[in-house]
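Lab notebook, bench 4. Still working through the backlog of constructs that have no structural model yet. Next entry is a single chain of 226 residues. Request: give me the structure tokens for it.
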Amino acid sequence: MKPFATIVLVMCIYLSGSDSAGLYEKSVIFPTETDNSFVRLNAPHFTSLTAFTVCFRAATEATRSYSLLSYATSASYNELLIWQENKTELWLYLGSYVDRFYVPEMNSLLRHICVSWESKGGEITVWVNGRRSVRKVGGKGRVVRGSGQFLLGQEQDSVGGSFDIKQSFVGEITDVNMWDRVLKPNEIELISQGCYSDGGNIIDWGSTTFTTGGNVIIKDNNYCTF
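Model written out:
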């Protein structure tokens, strides 16, 4: 008589409103525009930043404007905002300071985007798929204040809330990482190719806990081909 086989089922369930572990090799998908769907990234506490690099992969077929990454504090709801305007304009908000970069048109193919800034010289750079934009200068002497909230999927008009359905992101985002320094060009090139395993020390997509709200789908990202 053959012994009974033991079957073990493993299920991953992401509960809205509860903190979960990191999103290593996962994508978050926002299937429809809403005023309540978001992913909150629970970054460790920091007092202030005088430099940063934010990198992520994103794809969308939306033709209107939307938020790609929103960081709000009680002092400024646009403390740090990466905003897509008119499909070919990437805007960076640092409080009251705003700058615009013209980039290749956003579409349904995942692309890698990095934005870096440093306070001392005010240098701002955007990278798309490892290619550098023209460098601009702005926000000299500013700091990015701590004790705020990082959100994907929505633009915050109050800390953690006051969402506008027409500013929501519809599409897929993955590999969101943030460092408290300006990364070197060779580092960004490796990251864009998926060859750099270390996550950011502010946001680490592989380990930073997160909370979801509304209609958010989490799937394997499946973009690596090697």
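Notes after review: The two ends are 45 Å apart (CA to CA). The longest strand covers residues 51-59. Flag for follow-up if needed.
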